[in-house]
Amino acid sequence: DVVWLCDEHHEQFYKFTTDGKLLQTIGEKGKRSDTGVPADDMSSQAWRKVTHGGGPFNLPTDIAFAPSGEMFMTDGYGNARVHKFSADAKYLSSWGEPGAAPGQFNLPHGVWIDRRGRVLVADRENDRVQVFDQTGKLLEVWPTELIGPAFFYVDDEDIVYIPEHNGGMISILTLDGERLARWGDGPVNRSCHGIWCDSRRDLYVVQPGEWGRVRRVVKYHRQ
């Protein structure tokens, strides 16, 4: 087993052993791609200043893996693209431009490769999930209302869990984007920023206690 971490402000992804030994680094520390964002803007609002898509990386957000080992990274806070790398970490391609049209992004924040081999992208500030093939061809946009979808967890029954960053909600959907359930406390839990399930299918969500406080991990027991 290995652990991958995204270092947003250093423009890098790290691969570690489970006891913390660094095995691999992708990206050059501090080297930000040209997207129109000023070099001194490291804020969570930098996505508003993106004028064009750029190469890897500019404040990246997430990583997902295809069965082939190929890697897909969302590059969202300072860019508007998904990047594809080979299993041996060679850069292959990118897609996306800033905007709200189909196939464009305003803060691509989370990414997942589903059982069908599709690339699910949480297009956070456009309040939608966009679905692509692995070459970047747009397949569909889920019609379900989502308020700032941030990340994904998809379990072995193909149930999709999405924390809604701007809505403070958690949505549960099918792989076709049909909502099965939704819960949350709205503004109290605004800024939901991560999600995962354990082997018992209990759910862990990164949430703030109250707006402005340090985030915490909240566990929900499966009934």
Structure commentary:
The model has no long low-confidence stretch (mean pLDDT 94). The chain has two domains: 1-141, Neuraminidase, CATH 2.120.10.30; 151-223, Beta Barrel (Thrombin, subunit H), CATH 2.40.10. Strand 5 and strand 6 form a beta hairpin. The two termini are 29 Å apart. The radius of gyration is 17 Å and the shape is globular. It is built from no helices and 18 strands. The strands form five sheets. Strands 4-5-6-7 form a four-stranded antiparallel beta sheet, with no helix packed on it. The protein has strands at residues 2-7, 12-17, 22-26, 62-65, 71-75, 81-85, 91-95, 108-113, 119-123, 128-132, 138-141, 153-154, 160-164, 169-173, 179-184, 194-197, 203-208, 215-220. By secondary structure, it is mostly beta strands. Helices cover 0% and strands 40% of the residues.
